[in-house]
Request: fold
Amino acid sequence: MSLYFEDLVVGTLAGLGSHTFTKAEIIDFAQKFDPQRFHLSEEGAKGSLFGALCASGWHTSAVWLRLVIDYRMRQGDFMRFRGERPARYGPSPGFEKIRWTKPVFVGDTIRFSSQVHEKRDTKSRPEVGLLLSLNEGHNQNGDLVFSVISKMFVERRTPLGVT
Amino acid sequence: MSLYFEDLVVGTLAGLGSHTFTKAEIIDFAQKFDPQRFHLSEEGAKGSLFGALCASGWHTSAVWLRLVIDYRMRQGDFMRFRGERPARYGPSPGFEKIRWTKPVFVGDTIRFSSQVHEKRDTKSRPEVGLLLSLNEGHNQNGDLVFSVISKMFVERRTPLGVT
Reply:
């Protein structure tokens, strides 16, 4: 979202779009960052924990990240089109509860979403608020494969305490 | 580590080695997964939140992951050399508290470590135990730039309850 903190509504669900994981990109990510046999080749994955070639959980996370950034940029473009400066996002004080609840296999299409989970005032930083988002990815069968709670400082229209 | 659950000692600290982040790899990761201006070019980073080109936090995480996997493989090779089958690791029930406490700028050398943080018996899965590790990255000035708590199921030599 590139919305200002005041305009975020708890419960709002944003569809981020979907991504189909190809064999080539799964192997490419694994060779760079997660060279375990079930991420590197179909052959190596046989008889492994997952039984077939599947994406590194960190690859799934990185694809989710890309879709969030793209979403925020589209939202920002729309706000600029309406003559408004998009809100500044970041930095993040951290992420919580990363879960990879099912494997992402070659050819799986994962649909990602982001929901406004909670808003917290930050008295020590009156110019921003803390946004907690619940992010999820579901495969083509509707199974949850990925979730993470992100925390992000989001610019306010009006600093806290100023009326 | 490729050690069995019984052999892991709380407090043991493993040095995972270090990595120097180049401009090219920072930009490459950002173009794929995190195309925000402070990750894409020196010029775009000026006047941004961080003031200079810096790595995506997810890039730092992915580099840590690679060093963990390499460490575990070296440990596994050593165990095989001694005639022992390395313990099976995984899957992970999730990661907690990812923090990027300082930016990682071009040319920074980050030294990563992993400490055995806690061991939990898992009665529903007697063949494994749950390992919690505290993973950290420090830059060349000694500043903490990254931390995450990983959870991993680790094979036991002897299933829980068998004596």
